[in-house]
Amino acid sequence: MQDHHSNLTKSLTKNTQVIQEKLNNTAEFTTRNIQIEGHNNKIHYGVLIYLDGIVNTQIIRESIIQPLAKAKLIPKEMFIKTLKARTVEKSFRQRSPSGPQIGLNEMFKTNINMIRSYIKSPELVVEMKKIGRYVQEDVAIVYLKSKVDQLCLEEVREKIDSVDVEYAIEGRIIDDAIEGYRPTLFHLTKTEEMPDVIVSALYEGRIAIFVDGTPEATVVPALFVQFMQVPNSYYEKTGRFANKPLFFISFFLTFLLPGVYIALQKYHTDWFPKKAVKIFFEDKVGFTSFWDMIFLIFILYLLSISAFRISGDMIIVASLLGTTIISSTAVQSKIIHPMSIVVVGTAILISLMFMFGGMGAPLLPLRIIFLIIGDWFGFTGMGIGLVILIIYMSRLRSLGVPYLTPIIPFHPKEFKDVIFRGKLKNLLNSVHLYPHDKKQKKQ
User: How many other C-beta atoms are found inside a 10 Å radius of the C-beta of residue 274?
Assistant: First the structure.
């Protein structure tokens, strides 16, 4: 990046190309040809170069274009870029107790500006694409040229080019194209709303995809271990060794807990004293605990859905009504065992840790599946089911990268940020490599 002036010539076209290449042909690179009338009516040609969305075009027009049109000398300060005014708000869905609090919004260029405010380097590349036949929407592929995984980048381009829809008003269409249209339990893309998290992913060689009108970015490749990360682990010392193990345990606990309770009640009550058996497993006259669990999971799932479909004032009413029906009526009449509410409520509460980003999607079906397995086959069946689940996860691919890497396949050099957060100096200086299978066939 030194001695750029040595590459410049007297040719405007060549100089423009040099600057564009130094900026890695980013899609925001904009030029405007200008003419200045000099002495003896001699015409001088020039070119105005700027990055669209970062500069204030009104100031360019008033302070540069108009004075040049009048052939007036203007001070050098007028060429200094001015950041475009933008509205940035606090992220409400993805929050952190420390570190930056701002989140993306629906303004496409504003989101790109926020990423550029973190990465002030010409290595940051923004590739623009269009999707939609009826109305074409802007899609930006953002990455760091020197760090990006080239195989993943090539596949992202191919996947986005293959999108054939009339219109796109949501970024989920991009997620579907990248994941492939074969259904999977797990998300193979990761949704992010906080710019600092996205920037960290770019430094790790991953790719961020922005869709105009969507206040989120899709980050790929998405690996299982990355869903266990929380931003505050990197901003403070608290939780450096505890957060990630806690997330791993919580993930399995949230869908295994109801099945474990049913297996204990049906097959292993002899492990407990008679008094404990009566308290924790008996003393009810209604349905079996299996159907208690199914009912509670169904009701709590309906409450979680209704929370986003009714007005804010009605949320309190719905919560009080649901609590009254479950706790006061069903429990007091001994239709539902209190431990069923404790177990299901704990499992649902833990699952809230994974609601944003994509990891919440598989939890409900997995909870039902292992509940059925625990009721029919006990711990033996649940153990076999867990092994099958891990094998299934190991066969998933995000842009050709194994979903469970660096655990399966095992890459010990990448473990400095898997079980616990390693030293920041080592993390920041690490080169992340993503193992690839043979290139996946188009789904």
Answer: 10
d(CA 124, CA 216): 19
- Beta-bridged to residue 54, according to DSSP, are none
- State pLDDT tens for residues 77-135: 444 344 444 467 777 777 777 777 788 888 888 888 889 888 888 889 999 888 888 87
Are 63 and 50 in contact, with CB atoms under 8 Å apart?
A: no
Burial grade of 51 (CB within 10 A; 0-12, 13-18, 19 or more) = middle
In the chain, domain spans: 4-79, 108-222, 247-398
Could you give the residue ranges of the DSSP H alpha helices within 27-133? 57-60, 66-69, 108-118
285, two tokens: 């006259």
Question: Which helix (H) or strand (E) element contains residue 208?
Answer: strand 207-211
Tens-place pLDDT, residues 239-264 = 677 788 888 999 999 999 999 999 98
In angstroms, the CA 137 to CA 160 distance is: 12
